[in-house]
## 1
Amino acid sequence: MRKSIRAGWISAALLLILLVSSACTAVPAAAPAASEAAAEESSAEPARLVVAQSVDVQGLEPSNVNSRAESNIFQHMYATLFEITASGAIVPYLAESYTVSESGMEMTFKLREGLTCHDGEPLTAEDVAYTFQRAADDANGFTGNTAGFVLDAIQYQDARVESDLEVTIVMGRYSSPALGLISEAYIHCKDSYSAMSLEDAAANPIGSGPYRFVEWVKDDYVLLEKTPDFTLREVAYDEIQWKVIPEASTRTAELIAGNVDIITNVPPDQHEAINNSGNAGVTGVAGTRRMYVGFNQRAMFDDSEGGQAIKNTAVRVALQYAVDVPTICKTLLAFECERASSMVNPPNNNTNLVAYPYDPAKAEELLDAAGYPRKEDGTRFDITFMAGRGRYLNDVAVVQALAQYLTDVGLNVDLQVMDWGSEFVPALRAHEVGPLYFVGTGGGTWSAVYDMSDLSAPTAATNYTEWNNAEWFELWDQLSDARDPESEKVITDKMLEVMYNDPPWLFLYFQPDFYGIAGDVNWQPRRDEIVDLTTASPQ
Amino acid sequence: MTHSIQQPPAVARPDAARQPILRKQPSPWLSAWRSLLRARWPLLAVLSLAALVVVALLSPQLAPADPNRQYLIQRLQPPLSVNEASGGVYWLGSDGLGRDVLSRLIYGSRVSLAVGVAAVLIGGLFGVFLGVTAGYAGGRLDDLIMRLADVQLAFPFILLAIMVLVVLGAGLLNLVIVLAIGQWVTYARIARGETISQKRKDYIESARAIGVGSSRIVGRAILPNILAPLIVIASFNVAGVILSEASLSFLGLGVPPEVPTWGGMLAESRDQLLGGYWWLAVFPGVAIMLTVLSLNILGDWLRDFLDPRLRNR
């Protein structure tokens, strides 16, 4: 027995040493060897840029893209009619021009000549029309960005072929951000896609963009290679690989070790380690993603105290005062933020609206007045708060801080942190998260209406709260009559005021984006989270 | 040879022949205590486990702060820092949300111990019941139970745990259930083997011959004689279950993030480790290590003490 005790203590000491050394070691020991090996190999192999993101694609169906992480990959495989630049300008891409009908409900695009899809099929107006028709076909059951957001937002009616190179998109109403929204649809060719089943299409993408599909190893990586005859872009790298590394600290370690070139969502507490590594640095940009806590008002939550409570506008307003957003930004996200007062990114927001201040006493007063006084146990009502893990910057810490603030004003919060891909996203898509849920939705700086398109209808796929404010949707309808920016601004400002007073969200912040970039890569991140690798080049 | 902890048979004791035949045997507890006093490391292990139990029971009295109270502006303070917001001292530092690491460590002992003991108790009782039933009844029931055990053994535990936790949802009770599911097979197999060995012995045959019922034979004769190896296994298993709880919490499959657990604390430290905040991982790591080590040493000693061949070595 003595022997086993001695062995036990030796094992314990070794374990302790391992723990301490792992805690104190910033750079994995294998880093130099890995870098040297990579350098030796680089002369023989095609130039490859490796990007690490936190989540994998759910599939490879271009009409079923659900997240920014997925669209980052898809936008390299599929081109769009127009595209939005880093500065917010909308410029021609597959199309060289467009015209809008007098009613504003038809947009006709003229395609460039000589376009092809990756399988060699010529890309014509028929393929563009097919792209929209296929996405809109209910039988396909698509819920991604094109089907679930773009088509809803423009009230898509039809796509009509005018000639070989001209196609018309027919909308149910005039919409000022229609061009930008249509620019999010990934164009694919009819012959190749109509010959495939949905399952085949989701596994064998045939794109139209600067990179073509090579391989997808689920939960590991997606590999793309340069499309040889693509003339609309000059790209510096022969191959781009999108690795899935859910763990932020592992992404950081891989960047420092030289195994990846760009990483997304670098947690604030790791900036120093990357910047001090000598072979990579952190670059931050003020992002456009609107982070919020949604108040899901679906009837399915009616049998819970919290579900009932948040149906009361006064409760939703009261909770705005309960959360100290600037402190969350400063401490957990390493940036000084101004709290959002609406869902619209500056400068298109209603500047007359002052963000709700942190005033827990006022929150308590309003909750009392709303009919939810503290009970004997000190709580007001029970409420479930759901969040996904690992998708947003420091998300688990942020939701814990939010839960603490809500607890402080008397809510008995049941915080449920779920797996992002397998649990949270399916529930979010089905509008079944809540009554409180934490999420961020991508935005832009080029249009207020674009940012507001999440709430284009009470049952819109992206209206996860199923908020149904009659005044908001009346004004939304009026937007189609506003043909100049000034009159549109009057309506959007009014709508944002309506939202401010009857908030479907607990407004938080516009998420900053921190990227870790290897020293030998020249790349500038964009504010809108689009990771455009066509602009990257070796140093 | 019997394995009764209550009444070890005199014939199995090598020094029995030298003792007067009418001399009263010392109680097993007294024997255990004497044996423990003679062995240095097991005594230390018992003392440290006793201290752990006291800490777990008196967590609210011992913890210097509310383990869930966040002070965002005081986050990641090193050990022995003063919490400027509350005036208290962060003896073991603060975590990424400004919570007191020492208080979370103290409260975390409750979860680790409760989960360890409850899972072993539930899994053990279930496993012993099935094992004794299989061993005593034999035949098809024996085959069925043992094939069930084989099926479970062929399934990786972590995968099984992930599946069950995804279906049932994360939470303390579900965690205990999952860990108990992972334990029963060990007990069932040992209990079955021991039962088969006991039921062939003469005293069982005699009991049957005089018409004692099966349930009485199992309860009064077999169970007391197969307990010793099961107790030893249980002591090792508590350590294993504590490690499994830590692993599942580390994977985010344990209890909700605001509930302090040692594994959860380790998991939360991941993002900060590269920044040099060592105290977030080292203290819960050391707590897990010391607890598991103590349980293993205690298990070693129990094995030796309950085996008459090793007792006086």
## 2
Amino acid sequence: MESSNWVFEMLKQMGPGCLITLKLFVITIVLSIPLGLIVTFLYMSKNKPLSKAIGGFILLMRGTPLLLQMFFVWFALPMIPYVGEYLELKDRFVAGAVAFVLNYAAYFAEIFRGGILAIDKGQYEASKVLGISELNTKIRIVLPQMFRTVLPSVANETIILLKDTALISSLGVADLLNETNKIVNRTTNITAYVLAAILYLVLSYVLSVVFKKLEKKFSF
Amino acid sequence: MYEIEAINVKKSFGNLEVLKGVSLNVKKGDVIAILGPSGSGKSTFLRSLIDLEEVDEGSIKVCGESLCENGKYVSKKEKNRILSKMGMVFQHFNLFPHLNIKENLMLSPLLNKQASKKEIEELAFETLKTVGLEDKMLAKPSELSGGQKQRVAIARALMRKPEIILFDEPTSALDPELTGEVLSVMSMLAKEGVTMVVVTHEMGFAREVANEIVFMHNGVVLEKGSPEEMFNGAKNEVTKAFLNSVLK
């Protein structure tokens, strides 16, 4: 009874951190998936300079550590001459979220591109001979098939994101990991680490179940 | 007036000249079977009639209207209007896998505002009935056999009420025991007077249903004539050799 109260107390202290972790997770998913979609279409557009520029963005986002990108957005952007003062973000969480959204948009864009390339060219031909416009082909034929194809990869990426959110503790944001660390330091006891691990595990498990359901629902 | 008039159509893929000046006239109600060995250019020619391949030279007219003249195409808007008179059925069906059969049929008429939703739905039911699949309205393409998929693909093409339907080897991807159901739907359409151009290896169908056989070889039309003439007295040696080899 004594110990269960103690664990409950610890969980209560971790609650707000857990909420911040979830907030970062939801914000990143909700913004990076549509942004990734836009990035894919721009990358695959026939406009060469635009496609090259987007290719550069993807290279930068995938080729440098997310942690470094967060530090860059928070510490370095404001130091850029002339424009820096407009790029200064007042909130550590917001700075971290910006880096997360940009980084994950690049990864999602590449996943989506793979999904689009996997679509048989016969689908485009059928659409064309049926007099379906290019825009409607994208919306009604390409996107639904792409989403189905990429669901397993998106699920994978989403679970990685959930765990990556812990990186934001390096900016001093009071997320789940940061709060856990504080408790461990205070109690000189590793129970909080175990609890945090269980929390991450439960959330990952919920995500994988949700995605399995989605896969089933959208199978064809 | 011809339904399709192709004059001296030429097309190259890189250095490879696939069509070396192909001409073809299709009258209303014609059923034309294009035969020939693989690589003869027959599929490329058929695909160029509906703008899936862009030709380099030559002219194509559909129902008297120019799709392309001396290799120059009309505007996109004109193209769409002219091409709406044609339907196409592919070797690999190309049904939309994420939509059920009814949605496959209704998508294009709905997007093109061909009629009210209710009318389109009724048309879908009637059209599926003509190919004998009205009980599959809510099935997904993956639940159908190859022959059923191809019948749905034919129904989907019919939804737009085309004047002409092009068939690109419609039975080549099917198991032998499933070709019959597709060919009988095509024969029925032929009897109803639908104009058809069919690239095929089905000699029986070509003989029984087509009123003209066109034999292509190496990017040209070597010989054409009625099934009677072609199957009993082809003049060209290559034609003869091909027909003999496939009829054995």
